[in-house]
Amino acid sequence: VGLLLVKRLIVLNPAEEKPLKDLILRRPIVISPEHSCYSILNLFQEGRSHFALVTPQKEAVAACWRGNADIDPSKVQILGIVTIEDVLEELIMEEIVDESDSPHAADTYMDTVRLRGLQRATTKLKGLLTKVRQLPEFLSAASGCSDLVTVACDPHGFYMALAVSVGLVVVAGIMAGLTMGLLSLDQLNLEILQTTGSATEQTYARRLLPVVRQHHLLLVTLLFFNSIANEALPVFLARIVPEAYAVVISVSCVLFFGEIIPAAIFTGKAQLPIAAALVPVVRVLTFVAFPLAWPVAKALDCVLGDDHDVSRYKRNQLKALVALHHRKSLNQLKKSDTSHASVPLLGKKTSTSYEATTHPPHPTDAQPVDSDDESTSAHLHNDEVAIIHGAMDMSTKTVQMIMTPFDKVFMLDVEEKLCDTVMVRILASGYSRIPVYKGHRTNVVTNYRYIFLLVN
């Protein structure tokens, strides 16, 4: 089999009726059906040829070539051919596969965190209702109490206890908010922001990454101070109000100001700036609680493992993430402005008017596209998604999946003369490279002259 590049026919005279066997031919690339598209692309890039035969009997073909023998069609089966255009077409024309029927773990992580906070708040609310039912007993027991601190008898002690109680509520809220806000941050997302984010986002990511990586130490430290604040609050409230009221006030304050409101703030839109601003506070708390928090954190590392490295997405997960982002971008475009429908898929249209210039354009004169532009950074176009999906499938798809069946390949006999009729057939076929065979279609020419005709 040889290869004929049609554009070389321009230098041939049809009147000479020159046979194909008199032309210089080279060896083709022979691959097995199990070859991946990625590996065959590497072979094409070596420059030997952009055309390959697909056959399960690869070694038999090579043996025939080494022995200058014709290929026996009863022993060798050629399944088809693969060109570099087939591989590139598979890369850029890949259909978007909907793999996002089941939500990705990264998309529902924040919902899980908020649900966990809601469950904790519900549990505390049940405890509050239990205390309210027992309120009459507490009131009767506290009616004869005479050791309460009042403004009249001890204003300094009263305001001190009140200030400490308010401070404990604030501390409990900050600790609960930091627990949910810091531990819900994705290390992979922080590393992405550190690399490709804005200057402000990169600063936030650099501050947060060292803290977030110490997962168990951070968890123990924040829960330690949160527990201290929650347990100490009823003690100080009991000095200025009866114990029954102290319990009700303590549970109510912890529920709303120590759980619900901090969870909503620290996991909201301003999660990253708030968490980055409080990193110095977290470092001070870690230093103070280090003698107690470090042994507990190490014990958790030994029992549960300290594997809190950045999670990596699998190939199918990345494809689903790209497709999901693309669909959400399209929905946002439809809702925001109907004029976006006129925007071309591959970018913005530029003026087609030609202005005469004295000097030709130079590559250094080109200006890069602004990465913060909404049309280039916020949305993925159809062609971009197709190329990303096609590139991810290059290592898993085999050449047998994209090849042209051998019985459908347009071929020429090596004995055929390049006359006007043959020229017309070649041009009518529409191919730029045409296989050439000797005797029968399966026979691959073994001589160096009879392998591939590369005509550029």
TrEMBL record:
Residues in CBS domain copies: 24-99
InterPro entries, sorted: ACDP, CBS_dom, CBS_dom_sf, CNNM
Any one cellular-component term (Gene Ontology): cytoplasm
Pfam families: CNNM (PF01595)
Ranges for region Disordered: 352-376
Signal as UniProt keyword: no
Transmembrane segments: 158-183, 216-238, 244-265, 272-294
GO aspect biological process, one term: magnesium ion homeostasis
Residues of the CNNM transmembrane domain: 154-337
Gene3D superfamilies per UniProt: CBS-domain (3.10.580.10)
Key words of the record: CBS domain, Membrane, Repeat, Transmembrane, Transmembrane helix
Record-given protein name: CNNM transmembrane domain-containing protein
Species of origin: Aphanomyces astaci
Taxonomic placement: Eukaryota, Sar, Stramenopiles, Oomycota, Saprolegniomycetes
